[in-house]
Amino acid sequence: MYRAGQYPLSALGPVTALWKPVIKGQLGVLWIRIHPCIADTVLSELVNASAMLQEPLEQQLRIDDISCDLVSFELLGNQSTQMLCSILSHTASPKSCGASILQAIQALSSPASLPESVVLALRIHDPRLHFPFKLGAEETQLLPEQQQRQLDGVLLQWPAGAASLSEAGDGGIWDRASCASDVERRPSEHSLNERRHAQLIPGAKLSPDPNIDVTVPLLLIRTGPEALLGSRVIKTASQLIDNLAHGWTLLAPKGWGMSLWMALNFAGARAQGLQERNHVGFEAGLSTFPANWPGTSAYDSWAGSIAADEFGKWSRRPPGKRTNYLQLGVESPFSSPFHTLLGMTSSPATYPEITTNDLQCRIRRLRKINSSKKAVALATTSADDGDNSDVDMGDPDTANERELGAVDTTAGIWLVSGERLSAIVSSLLTAPHDKVTLVQWAKPLLESIRGHSCEDSLQLLERALVRVRLICNGRGVPAKNAPIYIRSGAPSTSPDPAPVGVDPRRSALIGYVMTGSFSLARGCSMAIGACSLKGLFTLWKAGLGIQLSQGSNKSASVTINSMNGGPFIEAILNVIP
User: Fold this and answer.
1) Cα–Cα distance, 295 to 149 (Å, whole number)
2) Are 77 and 271 in contact (CB under 8 A)?
3) Rounded to an integer, what distance in angstroms lies between the CA atom of residue 467 and that of residue 286?
4) Does an H or E element contain 573, and which?
């Protein structure tokens, strides 16, 4: 999603749109699922965009915030389908479309076999009646002929046979007033315990009573890489996306979160935090929001908070025990200065300042202690004029100014996202080598974007960032914020040679690493980074390391700074959506 009238600039983040089936005589309803960190921004942007509509349309449009009216659970992994079928098997209408589809697909070994972005609606009985749930045994033998025919029929009609409304004709989960009424009149835990106590057989499951118990409307969304990337994934190589990223998203009305949470945990599900969820996306080779979305305000806030914490941790160490980043040639160790890479100069308003009261008091104490040695320090500086080999980021005051100056605005950055645009950039890397300019080389990319004149084409391309996946060939793990250089025949401990007076690292710099770690799924180091489109043009123009690997996957060889003074890390670069 982008701000109104500013595409392809001013990106907000990935969103998922969910349409309610049209019912005669009723207005259409659209749900937009977004990341919580951009909820307020998207809501205000929708309000501003609705004000631009004509008066009849503006009166019919209503925007509501329903983030507190729903609960959602995301299930990932090969057993997610089987677990959902075990928990949701007690449906209120077994012959409904959603229930029949769920019953047919429970034999599938992985949700990756099903198309993404399909929505199933069903109603289940109160999950507390059949608690606790147990995960069914995995099917290891061939399915019976009748069950196999049923599964084949469902898959052949997919997704035409799916439905997002119940057959009862009610609004289901879309009717928020009915959902709130059901939560209010549902039986209490005390009444359920009394019914269990009255059972003749101890431990027997309770039978639903239509006069007392209520049903729960649910929505099942088949999610996968498209939810992380915010775009369709059709032609992306399957070997670069693991089954870890495929699963289901369960939506339920508020008030049923704890009941479903207990049911999932007793069925064998394991909870994970945001850090683990991001690592699952990383293992699948996919970018996550907001950590891998430069050019958005959410990334600025996230990167700014991380940079402030890391700088505070570094500045609290004694000067003699700090890492000397200047001597190692690292200009921005706490953040990725994409503004410098793209030639931008102004500072972002969302980036927090790293000056605290405790840090200022420490600076004053250091200055008071060293005031008597000021003359000696000046004499030493005068004697070593022109030699900055001993200069490091030891003074927190100087380092603070340097780090604040290294972080700049990303408001005008164009992040090339989506499978269609990334496929165009991948094809440009293997285009025939001709003496062309950046605008001529990226003409197919400009033609795919409408509404931009030729006068601002060069400026738009110079502010473009492309997300890449880096698969390392040898030892070493890419660190966060590590610079990415063009590979050459020079020794791995130094970048390409450059003319006198020109920083060789700056002349070969094309991007930065945003996330790096050792991939257990691939058995090698991997990183997710972003490179400037201009840097990729330089890489293509030089013709260094361009090759074809793994069939039709286009890749190029680059080197990554180790950030600790060690040898450069060689890696294979692939463009990702």
Assistant:
1) 49
2) no
3) 10
4) strand 569-575
Q: So what's the pLDDT on residue 411?
A: 52
DSSP-derived secondary structure letter, 319: G
Distance (Å, whole) CA 487 – CA 527 = 17
Residue 535 one-letter amino acid: G
How would DSSP label each residue in 465-513? EEEEEEEESSS--PPTT-EEEE--SS-TTS-----TTS-HHHHHEEEEE
Q: What residues are paired with 220 via a beta bridge?
A: 120, 250
- The residue written with tokens 């009255």 in the block is 198
Could you report the per-residue pLDDT of 263-306, keeping only the tens digit for each? Answer: 898 888 888 888 888 888 888 888 888 899 998 888 988 888 88
Measure Cα distances from 575 to 12, 299, 505, 528, 536 in Å.
Answer: 21, 20, 22, 10, 10
| Entry pTM | 0.79
Task: Calculate the average pLDDT of the chain.
Answer: 76
Distance CA 405, CA 145 (A): 68
Q: Any idea what the Cα angle at residue 386 is, between residues 382 and 388, rounded to 5°? A: 95
DSSP 10-58: SB----EEEEPPP-TTS---EEEE--GGGHHHHHHHHHHHHTTS-HHHH
What is the distance between the alpha carbons of residues 482 and 383, in angstroms, rounded to a whole number?
Answer: 34
Tokens of 364: 């004053």
CA distances from 369 to 366, 372, 379, 386, 390 (A): 5, 7, 18, 27, 21
